[in-house]
Amino acid sequence: MVNDILDLSKIEAGKIKIEKKPFSLNKMISNMVSNIENLAKKKDLELVLNISSDLDFIKADEMRIKQILYNLLSNAIKFTGEGKRIGIDTCAVDSDAAISVWDEGQGISSENLEKFLEPFEQLSPGYSEKPEGTVSTWQ
Q1: Which end of the chain is less congested by CB atoms within 10 angstroms, N or C?
Q2: Is the pLDDT of residue 121 over 80?
Q3: CATH number of residue 25's parent domain
């Protein structure tokens, strides 16, 4: 959590260095999925991967992409009820890569959508279990 706060402060101050280098998106996702899969299994969640075979090497900051995906997948696990599904979809869009993280959770109420994009904002969506941590997203 402290590292996330420090990273956000650096981003807002324009002091974070993004290191764009070619890497295999498919390999990175495959490697990180084993950690996420164990967390998902503890909640009896199915992890669905729709990884495009025609999208492999991209030029981006691998560490930041991995960090974003891990945060989004961790939230998907946290806020999705047992026995449901979470997933990652990737595809090529023109010369860009599109990555989607999705879940079958309850979702965010319309009155909380504006607060959702505020850094470190914790929403109260009326879940049966008290949510932990903060909610953040990257696009």
Answers
A1: C
A2: no
A3: 3.30.565.10
